[in-house]
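Many introductory courses stop at the sequence. We go one step further.
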Amino acid sequence: MARQCIFCSNPADSKEHVWPAWILRQLDIDRPMRHKLGRNPAKIVPKAELQVRCVCNTCNQGWMHDLEELNKPIIGKLLEGIAMSLDTTQQFTVARWAVKTSMIQDAMDTRNRQMFYTALEHTAIRSKSAIPENTAVWLGKYSLRTLSIDGYDVGLDFHDPDSKVPELVNGCVSTIVVGHLMLQVFTAHVPEKYSNRPFDVTCTVPGPWDRLLIPVWPVTVQVNWPPPLFLKGTGLDKLNGRLRGGISL
C-alpha cells in the first residue's frame, strides 16, 4: 500500500518534485547534484530532478500547483537576482512556498527520524494557507546561480525569564537556494503555555545577518530585495548552521 499523503488522508500516489519543473527549466541545470539532510552523509544524485513519494495527485495537481503558479512571477525574478520590492501579500506567498518546500524535505528521510511537522500543520497549510505558529522565514542572495537544499532538526534551550531552568524545544531548519535566491525557514514547537508569547532567535554563528537576510515572515511591512550584502562560498554553510543556538522569550 502507498504511504499516506502528508497533506491529506489520500494515498501518496504522486511523486512530488523537490525542485519544481519550471525552476529546473529556468535555471537549465542538468548535472549531478549534492544532497544532504541533517546528519546523514552527503550523497551525489544523478539529476537535480529530486522526487519524493509523499503527496497525492489531488494535492499535487491542486493547491500545490496553484501555489507554484502564484510564485512563478515572484521567485522567477528573485532567483535571477533581479531587484524588486515585495509587498505583504507577495512575502506571504513566497513564505508559504518556502514552508511547503521545507515540509517536503522533512518527509524525505523518515527511516531514522520522525517527521518534524505535524499532521495539523500539514493540513493547515493546505486547507487554510496557514503557516505554522512560531515560524520565521528569511530571504537572502547568493553569489552563485545554483540549487541547494539542507536541513536539520535541532534541540533548543527555551529561556524563560521567570524560570532558572531552560526548557527543551524542538526546532527544524531548512536552507533552500534556487538560483541567486536563498530562503531559510525556522519552525519551533514551543510548549503550549508559551504559545502566545513572542520569542527571539539566538544565532551562535556570528555574522551581519541583519544585512544579509530580509525577514518576510511574519509579515510586517513592504521590503526591498536583495539585502545590502550577499553570501558566497562557504558562507552558505554558516547560514545553514547559524540557528543551532537557542531561543528565548
